[in-house]
Write a structure and sequence with these properties.
The longest helix is centred in the N-terminal third of the chain and has 17 residues, at 27-43. 42% of the residues lie in helices and 23% in strands. The chain is α/β, with parallel strands linked by helices and 376 residues long. It folds into two domains: 3-252, TIM Barrel, CATH 3.20.20.70; 302-375, Orthogonal Bundle (Arc Repressor Mutant, subunit A). Strand 4, helix 2 and strand 5 (83-93) form a beta-alpha-beta unit. The chain contains 16 helices and 17 strands. It is globular.
């Protein structure tokens, strides 16, 4: 399921744990960027990129855009790309008070799925993550999107953040389920090098939960959500039937994707590239009628592609079809990497079901150990 990713590189304030490229926004800059993005999408040659199953506006904070700006971007995508019937169109939204008509405007622009970056409902824990939002704004935002007819609503939660406990996670899950979202993401916090939170932890100013506590929080999320009908389809993601995030599934299944905007990454026919992460360079190039500067990050050979397919595909609870990998990339590229996984299988972290290899329940808790074997 190939997808199209569009990066909106603006935030009102950068979160302490975030390493995505973003800058402060202004109304003028948002409009200028929208116009450049539309021109870039309409102008760029796309060759034989297949019909896309998903379009995803991420960031940054895409909800800083107006519905009209989102609509202009989506119109450009539809005019320049083949899109499959029923294409999933997702927008990340911060749960701040919504502007009048915002939810209806997104629905009218063609948005079918909204992902709310809740993280936690507890003010002290939000401050520990460097977020300013108010938990009381979440339910009204959900209500407005429901009234607007958005057919799929996701809530993103963080586990393992400063001050978080199994009890706090259970409370966040309780409040999440009160809103009955179709999708819940529960991500263990990853310390990204160079972020304010990573520096604070390294300096001893902030403590994070230990491994046992993180495991307890993760198991709590898994047990609570699956007990009420959510399917645990990826390490950190749970969905009601028919509501798995199609765009992210494309990444985990090894599909090609196109990225637009500064810092956006593409993977097309084994070549991974990135638009230079510099907003003003991007604006200058596009406004002058030139393609934005793009850097080739790597060209993946057969072994690299098998490794990546395993690293991404083992995140899925259904795992990876080993026979399909061998048919696609050949036994010479596939079998040595499958052999690398044998110690993990012997340790009970992996299991085989027919031609599929997948993480066990214990392996999901220790997934990084399996992944390190693949990249080591």
């Amino acid at each position: 399921m190939p997808g199209i990713y569009i990066h909106i590189p603006f935030c009102t304030r950068k979160c302490a744990y975030c390493d995505f490229y973003s800058l402060p926004a202004s109304p003028h800059l948002l409009q200028r960027y929208t116009q450049a993005l539309v021109a870039d999408i309409r102008r760029r040659p796309h060759g034989s990129f297949p019909a896309a199953a998903s379009v995803y506006l991420g960031g940054g904070t895409p909800s800083l855009l107006s519905p009209a700006q989102v609509g202009a971007i989506l119109d450009a995508v539809a005019a320049s790309h083949d899109l499959l019937p029923g294409v999933e169109v997702s927008v990340e939204v911060n749960p701040a008070p919504l502007r009048a008509g915002f939810a209806r405007g997104l629905a009218a622009a063609g948005v079918t799925r909204v992902s709310l970056g809740v993280q936690t409902f507890q003010p002290a824990l939000l401050r520990g993550l460097g977020r300013r939002q108010r938990p009381e704004d979440v339910a009204p935002a959900v209500h407005q999107f429901r009234r607007a007819g958005i057919s799929s609503l996701g809530v993103d939660l963080v586990l393992g953040g400063p001050g978080m406990t199994t009890a706090s996670v259970a409370e966040d899950l309780r409040r999440t389920l009160e809103m009955a979202p179709e999708h819940v993401s529960a991500y263990l916090l990853a310390l990204e090098p160079g972020t304010p939170l990573a520096r604070a932890v390294a300096a001893g100013r902030v403590d994070l939960p230990g491994e046992d506590e993180e495991a307890s929080q993760y198991e709590t999320a898994r047990e609570v959500l699956t007990s009420v009908g959510y399917r645990h389809y990826e390490l950190s993601n749970f969905a009601l039937p028919g509501h798995a995030c199609r765009h992210n599934l494309g990444y985990w299944e090894g599909q090609d994707y196109l990225g637009y905007g500064p810092g956006a990454v593409s993977l097309v026919s084994g070549v991974r590239s990135m638009v230079r992460a510099d907003l003003y360079s991007y604006l200058r190039e596009v406004e002058a009628g030139r393609p934005p500067q793009r850097v080739v990050l790597e060209t993946l050979g057969a072994v690299d592609r098998v490794r990546e397919r395993l690293l991404m595909g083992l995140r899925l609870t259904e795992g990876v079809c080993a026979a399909q990998l061998e048919a696609e990339f050949g036994p010479e590229a596939t079998r040595p990497l499958l052999a690398v996984l044998q110690p993990a299988a012997a340790a009970g972290l992996l299991e085989y079901a027919g031609n599929r290899v997948r993480l066990t329940g214990r392996g999901q808790l220790l997934a990084n150990e399996v992944f390190r074997a693949l990249v080591g």
